[in-house]
Amino acid sequence: MSLIRASRLLRLSTTPALRLSSSKACPPPSQDKPNFPCVDAHAARESKLIASRAPRFEVTDNADTGPEPAYARPNPTTYHTYHHPHPLPLTYSTTPLPAFDIAYETWGTLSPERDNVILIHTGLSASSHAASTPANPAPGWWEKFIGPGKAIDTNQFFVICTNVIGGCYGSTGPSSIEKATGKPWATRFPIISVFDMVNAQFHLLDHLKIHKLYASVGCSMGAMQSLAAGWLHPDRVGKIVSISGTARSSPSAVAMRFAQRAVLMADPNWNNGFYYDGLPPHTGMKLARQIATITYRSGPEWDLRFGRQLRTLPSDATTQSSSAASMDASYPSQSRSPALCPDFLIETYLDHQGESFCLKYDANSLIYISKAMDLFDMTLPALQALNIRRRVPHQSAELSPSQAQPHKTSHSKSHPPPVNPPAYLPSLAAGMAPLAKIPTLVLGVQSDILFTVEQQREVADALRMAGNDSVSYYELGGVWGHDTFLIDTLNVGGAIRGFLS
Amino acid sequence: MSLIRASRLLRLSTTPALRLSSSKACPPPSQDKPNFPCVDAHAARESKLIASRAPRFEVTDNADTGPEPAYARPNPTTYHTYHHPHPLPLTYSTTPLPAFDIAYETWGTLSPERDNVILIHTGLSASSHAASTPANPAPGWWEKFIGPGKAIDTNQFFVICTNVIGGCYGSTGPSSIEKATGKPWATRFPIISVFDMVNAQFHLLDHLKIHKLYASVGCSMGAMQSLAAGWLHPDRVGKIVSISGTARSSPSAVAMRFAQRAVLMADPNWNNGFYYDGLPPHTGMKLARQIATITYRSGPEWDLRFGRQLRTLPSDATTQSSSAASMDASYPSQSRSPALCPDFLIETYLDHQGESFCLKYDANSLIYISKAMDLFDMTLPALQALNIRRRVPHQSAELSPSQAQPHKTSHSKSHPPPVNPPAYLPSLAAGMAPLAKIPTLVLGVQSDILFTVEQQREVADALRMAGNDSVSYYELGGVWGHDTFLIDTLNVGGAIRGFLS
Fold it and tell me: Could you tell me whether strands A240-243 and A117-121 are parallel, antiparallel, or unpaired per DSSP bridges?
């Protein structure tokens, strides 16, 4: 129950006594005590946050709503917001979300027939800002892929990108104000699913009077949404692009996201999710991002990019460690001693990735959305267990696992029917049967350790087994791992362009 | 400098005010605030630790030495200790370790010729207790591999296993008392290398009057030590067994160990390493072990073992979440709603692994030894930069990188000379030239993501390139990943038995 509170009291009452007794009984000579800049950085960040918010804490009568944290101060003039005033049914909840906002941006021009729309689904932490706009000229997260003449050609298509519900960039999420209480939802926010995210997007499409998408396009979690869109609304999705995604989150991907949630939730600042009137769990976010970054790139890339190189040491760097650990000794390639703080370039890279992210994104959004990814599973029994009412004309097209058969012809000569398919493949094929008529591009990257190439093959195999004759499947080499979809305009961009044309 | 201290003051002075202001201004109704047992567990553990140590804190005059933490209370009656009263030169330090203890256990009988000795090197966190003994009948960490008639046959061999220096199971490490101060070294302990660990072991061998090892055997970090033993003392090592190790830590392995150190060092209890008179960083240790466990096993194993199964919920489990997150809804395979705390079996498995380890091992030992692993690099320039004086008769046998050539004959038909060797392979071959005359078994596992199979091939290739005609190389399939060496008695045990006979 209130162990956390008890602990906090303990921390306040008992721990200082320990420290006191400690500093009284055994004070290590300060000149002899090593410094750890990588650890001090957390405290420095905390002090800076406190200082930057000092005025707020003086205005106690304004504290009941509380200002939004720095990372969750979106500028609503740079994107559109659709407010859906009606309840949104949820997959894992009998109580719907009472209402929601969805932030979106658009590029290109909607055709008079409203038939040139591409909906772009984002990965975990991205905003609706997929590419620069007049209202927000900053480069978007997929800037290289969206624009006139680019892979997603805005001379031809009307492109929409939304911030997912559960996010913190303008769409309703845990940091949003719950109308009933006037306070941020925090962890009172309901668990959401990828299907819920997509349902919210289709309410936006309804609002925009767009009946059918030319294509539903997504990478990473966006690929899950892209598949979910086809499953929920097969008659409203013309083509599907699924890049570095999955139709069934694997236990190893769950493990890697679990590790991130665990470090985040262990940060005392997280406070069971109720930190919006205090300090955000910036240390936990930094640590979580460091772990995430390991899963986004690949060992082969780091071999090439960093190898075993050490960070460049400032000439006056005497603070790394003041004592034993910095004794002057020879050290591979450089005449200095190793340190316990980041020392190899790969370490400083991860440290930097964590530092630059830790105040950019809402911790609760990370927790809720990463959980939604874990829960994603398109095998038939998993889908049947969900609280989802699909309004699909062709329910009869769905197969039972026993009915699903390996499809006779393979769309791609480079990818024959699987030799050793996982036991659940028929069940996945049965679950994905509603997508049998939708041309689908499945693209994966061999160096991706988060959404492995086996999972890409699985998506393609399940679609083919479900009877989909129009599966385009590509496997990319290269060393960029999961992040390839952000980088490789030549190959990822080329495949998308070819598939959309 | 004292940012950490400043932060601690801030935490004590400012943060409570925030909480106060928070709880005054916006108190979420307690019946509406979700509970998180996985987070409460940290506080509960802390309370339990405080309670178990309460008497100590009352005895302030005894506080200058402080009792050892629970995980570092080795029982010296269950192992032997060799005290080396002379300084041990260190790789990265001009100041030697003034003296050291090394804990060890033995199995089997030393032959009159003292020529049947096998030295077993441990992985990161293991003790000298590799197998049960009369003094300590508990199963050892390699119980299935050591004993009469087993892969390492104690009817034939006299087997020694030590706790490495830097460790916390009886050998000198950061938790040991520094004689000059009468206090634990903590992070005043010097950075150590794998070579330092091996040097200490050879002082033990000198003490035991064992000139030459029949074999030096190690897995994981133990494999690094095994190779280092051959490099430091080629005339004293008869055979080398290197299982799931490396001769050059890769940036991706460094990344995964960095993530563990980072979460550990961010735990406020870590206190820059000076926690021995306070509470250990048990939360950081749990989080670090969770990350480590991900690298020790493999996705394919988890697919088979856990799949997407959910944990079994106690029938009366109403505490998982008291509000939104536990609303009654259908959920894959089970009629309950998902939770933000561990929910899938893979999550509860990782949680359990972390929980059961977090008070077993010293956090500073983990930091120092994992750093030693990162620093391990047998390429010639890296070795030349070290502060190591090898007393080797055949220094002339060493090759320059340009002299090293792919060896003409390959020992194993299954492993021809590499097609695309890494650029540093000649440099690694040159560095490993002192091992050219030592028969070596190199064994790796294809599902190992920490010490990848590419690194196993690298060790074998470098040895062959250095002119070693007696390299036995095995690559195992199977799903157990890095931990295979703890599990697979049939294949790992068989290869060892065959190689040693």
Answer: unpaired
A57 to chain B: which residues are within 8 Å by CB?
17-18, 21
User: For chain A, which ranges sit under pLDDT 70?
Assistant: 1-31, 54-74, 313-336, 391-416
Residue A316 a catalytic site member: no
Please indicate whether, in this complex, the C-beta atoms of A262 and B351 are within 8 angstroms of each other. Answer: yes
A114-127 as b/e, with b when 16 or more CB fall inside 10 Å? eebbbbbbbbbbbb
Catalytic residues of B: 220, 448, 482
pLDDT score for A313: 67
Among partner residues B44, B272, B386, which is closest to A36 by beta-carbon distance? B272
Q: Which of A3, A278, A332 sits opposite B44 (nearest CB)?
A: A3
Highest-confidence segment of B60-74, B230-244, B331-345: B230-244
Number of H helices, E strands in chain B: 15, 14
How close does chain B come to A253, measured CA to CA in Å?
8
Q: What is the pLDDT of residues B119-148, one digit of tens each?
A: 999 999 999 999 999 999 999 999 999 999
Q: Which of A395-399, B79-83, B107-111, B259-263 has the lowest mean pLDDT?
A: A395-399
The size of the A-B interface in CB pairs under 8 A is 388
Question: Which residues neighbour A365 within 8 Å (Cβ) at sequence distance 6 or greater?
Answer: A125, A166, A167, A168, A173, A174, A175
Please tell me the predicted confidence (pLDDT) of residue B414. Answer: 55
Q: What is the pLDDT of residue A21?
A: 32
> pLDDT at position B420, please?
82
Quickly list H helices, A116-250.
Answer: 194-207, 221-232
pLDDT for residue B170 is more than 60: yes
- pTM equals 0.87
Instruction: Kindly determine whether residue A190 and residue B325, on different chains, have CB atoms separated by under 8 Å.
Output: yes
- Shortest distance between the Cα of B222 and any Cα of chain A, in A, equals 21
Contact B264, B362 (CB under 8 A): no
Give the amino acid at B108.
G
Average pLDDT on B172-176 reads: 97
Nearest to B344 among A15, A32, A374 (CB): A374
Euclidean distance between CA atoms A241 and A238, whole angstroms: 10
Give A266's contacts in chain B (Cβ within 8 Å): 39, 42, 283, 287
Q: What is the DSSP string of A388-448?
A: -----TTGGG---TTT----SS-S-TTSPSPSS--TTHHHHHHHTGGGTTS-EEEEEETT-
Write out chain A residues lying below 8 Å of B189, CB-based: 324
Residue A220: active-site member: yes
Residue in chain A nearest B380 by alpha carbon:
A332
Residue closest to B301 by CA, chosen among B472, B482, B121: B482
Share of chain B above pLDDT 90, in %: 74
Residue A312: the pLDDT is 77
pLDDT attached to residue B75? 81
Cβ distance B342 to A183 less than 8 Å, yes or no, reads: no
What domains, with CATH codes, occur in chain B?
Answer: 80-255+367-500 (3.40.50.1820)
Residue A330 confidence (pLDDT): 34
Tokens of B476: 């195992």
Residue of chain A minimizing CA distance to B262:
A287
pLDDT in tens, B447-461: 999 999 999 999 999
Tracing tokens 């002075």 back to the chain, one arrives at B13
- Which of A175, A193, A220, A447 is catalytic? The answer is A220
What is the helix (H) or strand (E) element at residue A303, kind and residue range? helix A299-305
Distance CA A20, CA A108 (A): 64
Chain A residue at shortest CA distance from B367: A340
Would you call A482 a catalytic residue per the annotation? yes
Give the count of beta carbons closer than 10 Å to the beta carbon of residue B51: 10
Helix-, strand-, coil-residue percentages of chain B, each rounded to 5: 40, 15, 45
Reported ipTM: 0.86
